[in-house]
Amino acid sequence: MAKIELKSLEHRYASSRKEKDSFAIEDLNIVWEDGTANALLGPSGCGKTTLLNIISGLIKPTSGSVLFDGVEVNDRPTRERHIAQVFQFPVAYDTMTVFDNLAFPLRNQGKEGNEVEARVNEIMELLDLGSLTAMKASHLNPAEKQIVSLGRGIVRKDTVALLLDEPLTVIDPILKLDLRRKLKLVQQELKLTIIYVTHDQHEALTFADHVTIVRDGFIVQSATPEELFLHPRTPFVGYFIGSPGMNTLRCEKTSDGLEIPGSSLSLPSAIASRADKLKGRIDLGIRPEFVETSAEERSDWNRFTIQMVDHAGAYQVLTLQSGSLQIKARVEDHSISKEGDPMWVNFPSEKTNLYADGERVAP
Amino acid sequence: MSIRAENVCQSYGKQSVLKNLSLELEAGSFFTLLGPTGSGKTTLLRILAGIEKPAAGRIFYDGVDVTDLPVQQRKIAFVYQQFINYPSMSLFDNIASPLRVAKEKHSESEIERKVMETAELLRLTHVLHHLPEEVSGGQRQRCAIARALVKEARFIFLDEPLANLDYKLREELRTELKQIFKDRDGVVIYATPEPIDALSMATHVGFIHDGAVLQYGEVLDVYSNPSHASVASYFCHPQMNLFPCQVESRGEGCLLRASPDLTLQVDLKKDLLPADHYLLGIRPHHLFLTDPQNRMTPFKAKVELAEVVGSNTELHLRHKETKLTLLMQQVEQFPVGEEVTAYMDPDHLYIFDSKTGAFLTRTNKRVN
User: Fold this and answer.
1) What whole-number distance in Å separates Cα of residue A288 and Cα of residue A329?
2) Looking at chain A, which residues constitute the CATH 2.40.50.140 domain(s)?
3) B-contacting residues of A 296-315, CB under 8 Å?
4) Cβ contact (<8 Å) for A314 and B285?
5) Residue B70 has pLDDT above 80, yes or no
6) What is the mean pLDDT of chain B?
7) With left for phi above 0 and alpha for psi between -120 and 50, is residue B114 left, alpha or beta?
8) DSSP sequence for A114-168
9) What are the chain B neighbours of A206 within 8 Å (beta carbons)?
10) Closest partner residue to A308 among B179, B308, B311, by Cβ?
11) Superfamily of domain A238-361
12) Is B272 exposed, middle or buried (0-12, 13-18, 19+ CB in 10 A)?
């Protein structure tokens, strides 16, 4: 396996050359370290599949370079790049047995006999395919077929990286758990470099140690799931990751400190003094789980009214209103919250993110 | 306003889908028909609406038998899982269409007023002049919902309307639909396989299992007092953990033995639980990775997978042959196969009959 790097990568499609904003990908830099589990996460049309095709060599980028272990491979043809791919729809030879499907890429390389058998058995054991060895692929369900596709992708030892393009889309929801587990296990055991492309936050954050969020051909943030959750780089990431998303409140600096227009909220002085140093438009971001609430009056907290209570079993999501300002807060399941009741609210500074012109500023 | 199903049966070929099902729903409430795929909830919804005729049984609207009344004469609205709109009409004309074909004539100015009002409610005002194919999937489904709302139908049926939307849109529409239906007079019936839809939006829930209503009532009451292990397990997000245990008398109470290394001492009297074997249930948010007050029951487990769902992590664990899910209210990663010590809260156990699945008793003092 290898380290994969994209440097100053740009790509635009021929038909749209005239328009300035027609880039599919613009000045993109990214490093996927050897042996790591990565995800590319973004809404459809954000340029994810274009990126995969550039890595595998199916598309030549307009400019910039693709490097495998530091060596530029821009002119290397697809078949010499040794990239394995698993797609939405499983690819398996229906007339062949599971064993022969897995052996196929090795036999194609001219390998035979014990060498093939040993490697195929190793992969089958890892993927728990042992009981299906002699079965024709046509008899498998889509989830089993997808595991065979995965096995074929990883059976060759000279594979540089494994690219997964929405691999669980057609899999029955109750079988997804097992596939997610196998994917993670395979990555952990074989130390593969995997890039998993998806529009689904759940898939990306469950699989990857490192998630890159792409929007309109740009990288918005590249970080661990925990980091994306705790320190979203933009309000969009704060909204996109987590459920419900982060509360984003537009702020205004005044002579008295920091204000939120449309409300008479007073913010903790710790937050106001952080904002003091910032320039440009200021937004405050706080996740519903970090909003502190109290049904009892607290003199230094802000009074809100409960607009709506959504039960989620383990907790409740409250919609709270103060003036024209609405926020969401998560509270434990046993608190008794009624619509119309007052609720006192605090934003602890250490859990609050501040954004200057849409970009997070570290405290 | 009410809707009632009496002894409804339906079958497709040899397969019996609804088995002598009865249900009564009253106005001013938001009902969910909850159940796994294939439980019969869509069939029931279609029969209640009049899109399908039952093989046996009767349907009453406000006490009047409407079983033989065609759907066009029922003053109902139906929203499907697929976003169904007229492709050649603008969103405005799509929303206006039910008013234009209605028996009672509406003036153009009245139609415009109603369409604008409904569009405002569903945040479609800025895209009303577009064709359905020019707007997003979420807006297409909002348009289909607007069509259902504009004619002020007395009975509104929704069949998994959020199923084809991504999770952010589902989250937004859930909140909006709840708000919209709160202020409406009429009966809203919403079929869904998602327990979170019922928990967060509805006032009442009917749990459909194998063609029958297994339990029906107010949402929080059904959630807190499941009558059956299958209701308890399904109507929980994520599903309630269920596993077999042995019960022995011990001191004042009894000892629940889930495995040689996982035993729970509880206050329940042994005479309440005369048999040797029962089914034990505990919700994923009553399992923990720490026990600062030192009051819970520790056990060793292996991590099968840590799934990040929304702002939570669902930790799938295996303790010997028992699979358990632990809900963490934060985002955290664990390698597959990692050994952890988990803690089970003995104050939140449910006990079910191991043969019938019927609810017997529980250890939790307060309701949740």
Assistant:
1) 4
2) 238-361
3) 308, 310-315
4) yes
5) yes
6) 92
7) alpha
8) HHHHHHHHHHHHHTT-GGGTTSBGGGS-HHHHHHHHHHHHHSSTT--EEEEESTT
9) 305-309
10) B179
11) Nucleic acid-binding proteins (2.40.50.140)
12) exposed
Residue B207 phi, psi dihedral angles, 5° rounding: -90, 115
Inter-chain contact B331–A245, Cβ cutoff 8 Å?
A: no
Query: Is A257 in CB contact (< 8 Å) with chain B?
Result: no
Q: What is the pLDDT of residue B64?
A: 95
Query: Nearest residue on chain A to B328, judged by CA atoms?
Result: A314
- Residue-wise pLDDT for A305-342, tens only, equals 999 999 999 999 999 999 999 999 999 866 678 999 99
Q: Do B167 and A180 touch (CB under 8 A)?
A: no
The ipTM, to two decimals, is 0.91
d(CA A269, CA A256): 10
Report d(CA A293, CA A307) in Å as an integer: 14
**Could you give phi then psi for residue A41, rounded to 5 degrees?**
-120, 130
Closest CA to B217 of B235, B238, B192, B193: B235
Share of chain B above pLDDT 70, in %: 99
By CA distance, what is B314's nearest residue in A?
A206
* pLDDT band per the 50, 70, 90 thresholds, residue A15: low
Closest CA to B326 of B346, B310, B343: B343
pLDDT tens-place string over residues A195-252: 999 999 999 999 999 999 998 878 999 999 999 999 999 999 999 999 999 999 999 9
**Continuous segment of H or E residues that includes residue A50:** helix A48-56
- What's the pLDDT score for residue B368? 44
- Please give the Cα distance from A245 to A237 (Å, whole number): 9
DSSP string of A275-323, one letter each residue: HHT--S-EEEEE-GGG-EEESS--TTSEEEEEEEEEE-SSEEEEEEEET
| Domains by residue range for chain B, with CATH | 2-225 (3.40.50.300), 241-362 (2.40.50.140)
What does pTM read for this prediction?
Answer: 0.91
The answer regarding whether domain A4-230 maps to CATH 3.40.50.300 reads yes
Write out pLDDT tens, residues B338-348: 999 999 999 99
8 Å CB contact of B167 and A201: yes
**Where do the H-state alpha helices sit in B226-308?**
229-234
pLDDT at residue A361, rounded to an integer: 96
Q: How far is B238 from chain A (nearest CA, A)?
A: 9
Q: Does B223 touch chain A if contact means CB atoms closer than 8 Å?
A: yes
Which residues touch A131 (CB under 8 Å, ≥6 apart)? none
CATH 3.40.50.300 domain position(s) in chain A: 4-230
**Confidence bin at A170 (pLDDT 50/70/90):** confident
Question: Contact at 8 Å (CB) between B84 and B144?
Answer: yes
What are the φ/ψ torsions at residue A83 (nearest 5 degrees)?
-100, 130
Q: Which of A181, A199, A202 sits opposite B308 (nearest CB)?
A: A202
Task: With cut-offs at 50, 70 and 90, classify the pLDDT of residue A17.
Answer: very low
